[in-house]
Amino acid sequence: MAKVSPLAKYKLVFLGDQSVGKTSIITRFMYDKFDTTYQATIGIDFLSKTMYLEDRTVRLQLWDTAGQERFRSLIPSYIRDSSVAVIAYDVASEYKLANPNRQSFMNTSKWVEEVRTERGSDVIIVLVGNKTDLVDKRQVSIEEGDNKAREFGIMFIETSAKAGFNIKPLFRKIAAALPGMETLSSTKQEDMVDVNLKSSGNSSQNSEQQGGGCPC
After folding, report:
1. How far apart are CA 203 and CA 201, in angstroms?
2. Is the dihedral of CA 192, 32, 64, 180 positive or negative?
3. Mean pLDDT of 181-196
4. Bridge pairing between strands 7-16 and 84-90
5. Alpha-carbon distance 47 to 70, whole Å?
6. Could you tell me if 201 and 27 are in contact, meaning their C-beta atoms sit under 8 angstroms apart?
7. CA 143 → CA 77, 162, 167, distances in Å?
8. What is the pLDDT of residues 57-112, one digit of tens each?
């Protein structure tokens, strides 16, 4: 495979239903903070950040998509030239509903199919179960998430943007899977968190914010 240039750029598109925490995951990674006030993403937001990996530097272009149905028509065009699709769902139910709120998890199948329709197999897909901090409200087990990922042949990890759990490992996992990265002798496996271990967020539209370098 062709050698990756030191300043290789990769487009990551974040997909998933409304309120699953896509923006919060990005905000935690970019700025290491969590916004307790929820504001729905309007349209598409764009940010970028540099990651330093062993002997090379990569630029991650993060595209945060709105989960509301009225913005769905915009999304295929952003998937089309992406290197990575991060499909997030909510492992818990934050609201007192008559029935468990597992819809965001069930809908991940549709998101995977949409990515495959646009990109075929030429894309890295990561299934992310977010909000693991809501332990008492969990509706989707780790095993269910892992089984669905295996069913589609994609990567899987659970996170908590609020607690900062597995956010950096998520992006290291992605970076290690990027084209050309298999030549790395190490991806700092000691920093990877076993997803089987139990654990106790609007930006201006289309505005690029330059994040600091991430020595991950």
Report:
1. 10
2. negative
3. 42
4. parallel
5. 22
6. yes
7. 32, 22, 20
8. 889 999 998 867 767 788 898 899 999 999 999 999 755 444 456 899 999 999 99
From the list 128, 199, 182, the residue with the least C-alpha distance to 157 is: 128
When pLDDT is cut at 50, 70 and 90, the band that residue 211 belongs to is very low
φ and ψ at residue 160, rounded to 5 degrees = -135, 105
Q: Are 22 and 14 in contact (CB under 8 A)?
A: yes
Task: Locate the domains of the chain by residue range.
Answer: 7-191
- Distance in angstroms between the alpha carbons of the first and the last residue of the chain: 24
CATH fold, domain 7-191, is Rossmann fold (3.40.50)
Q: Going by C-beta distance under 8 Å and a sequence separation of 6 or more, which residues neighbour residue 193?
A: 165, 166, 169
Q: How many C-beta atoms lie closer than 10 Å to residue 175's C-beta?
A: 23
Three-state helix/strand/coil letters over the chain: CCCCCCEEEEEEEEEECCCCCHHHHHHHHHHCCCCCCCCCCCCEEEEEEEEEECCEEEEEEEEEECCCHHHHHHHHHHHCCCCEEEEEEECECCCCCCCCCCHHHHCHHHHHHHHHHHHCCCCEEEEEEECCCCHHHECCCHHHHHHHHHHHCCEEEECECCCCECHHHHHHHHHHHCCCHHHCCCCCHHHCCCCCCCCCCCCCCCCCCECCCECC
Query: Residue written as tokens 């075929």?
Result: 120
- Amino acid letter, residue 185: S
Question: Is 139:106 a contact under the CB 8 Å cutoff?
Answer: no
Reading the block at residue 79, the tokens are 């998937």
